[in-house]
Specification:
- The chain is of the alpha+beta class.
- It has 7 helices and 4 strands, in the order αααααααββββ.
- α1 (6-15) packs parallel to α6 (119-130), α4 runs antiparallel to α5 and α5 runs antiparallel to α7 (134-188).
Length: 266
Amino acid sequence: MSAPPPDDDLVSACAGPRRRFNWAAALLPFWLSWRRLHGWQLLAVLLFFILDAILTVQLQAAAERGQLGLKPHDERPVFWSMAMAYVALGLAEGFLADALLRLRAGRLLRRLRAAQADHARAMEVMRREGRGSRGGAFAMGLGLLILPAWVPQIFTANRGLERKAYRAAMKSDLRNLVTAQETYSSEQGGFTARPEDPAPRGVAYRAGPGVTVTMGIVSPTGWNAIARHEQSRETCGVRVGAASSPLDTVGAEGEPVCGRPGRRRE
């Protein structure tokens, strides 16, 4: 078996062995910068943000249409688009890494040939240039620290938003009930235990989708009620007049408070 040509030996000293797919380039953030491909790394970052923006717009449009299991004002498209852009660029970098490294090594070798460097000097330079840069190593390490904190957001980003939305829906329905009871009191006197009934027994009150409002104590001097959402474990309550709070905490009169059973209420 014949020895490799000198130029191939020099290129391999800088670019490393040939690979069809470079897993390190695909998985590690800023790997291109670590291998001194700074221009290509800058281009990859720019493409990441462009692709992320396009995917975010498309996923948010799907959320507005109720597609892909998403809901309007969903936060998940923001993190899903970042994940999809990262995977797409990672695959591209994995397949292109070998070609980019050899392109850089070829350019460096031509400069050395133009400077009439001998083989030993050229090998020394190519090996030195084949080592990772310190700045790129720092960027890659920083990316590896940030990535584990970011990945869980892809799966949990929407939980806090959903809890706030369910809580807001229950509080809104309870405030509407307070208004409806005030209307009933001004017209009929007292308060009604069946606000959902039409007048004169009630005010045709209706809770929003997914929310169930249940009246508690109703007397001529006050009333209370609780609200539950079918997608939430929290319970919200409101009191008016002399009625006690339906929860184990006392909020301001007419102002809903929420919480989970056995926990401190908000």
